Amino acid sequence: MHYPLSILNLIKNLAKLPGVGEKTAERLAMHILRSPLKEAEQLAASILDIRQKVRICGLCFALSETETCHICSDPSRNTSLICVVEQPADMVAIEKSGSFEGLYHILSGVLSPMNGVGPDNIRIRELIERIREGKIKEIILATGTNVEGESTASYIAKCIEKYPVKVTRIASGVPIGGDLKYVDRVTLRRAMETRHAV
What is the pTM of this model? Predict the structure, then answer.
């Protein structure tokens, strides 16, 4: 109880954030306390703002401030191409790369029977509904390369094999500049399996 109650409350609330321990929460609280009042007000307002304005896109399940996100609303996007990702952050990473011009489908998780996450707990049914509409020509499975990501990709591929869509998986392997002796076995195996002509 070395701090006033208001500071203790802020530290406690900041420590609830993922990846923020008590020491980091204390440093953040002290930073906020030393910041100009306007900065603290802007921080508080931006937190309230996202809670009040941000919703889920009705088509792809990305984060949006409107019923349909800016990607799904963009007429220049290739609507016959869908990239399936686990979370909104994965979509953002692909968008930052500038390598994809289609639409997305965000599963909001991966299959994980050990954690009680089955097909009904993620948005596979909604993906199948989008495919049934008949406008999609290719599905790119861009889930993680861990066990859950791989099993989710396999499950989805099996579920949609009866539909007339091409199903592809993002390539994975040795990173550019990577030293082979430091690359794990699974990544090396995947790199060998997805090799291509030079």
Answer: 0.81
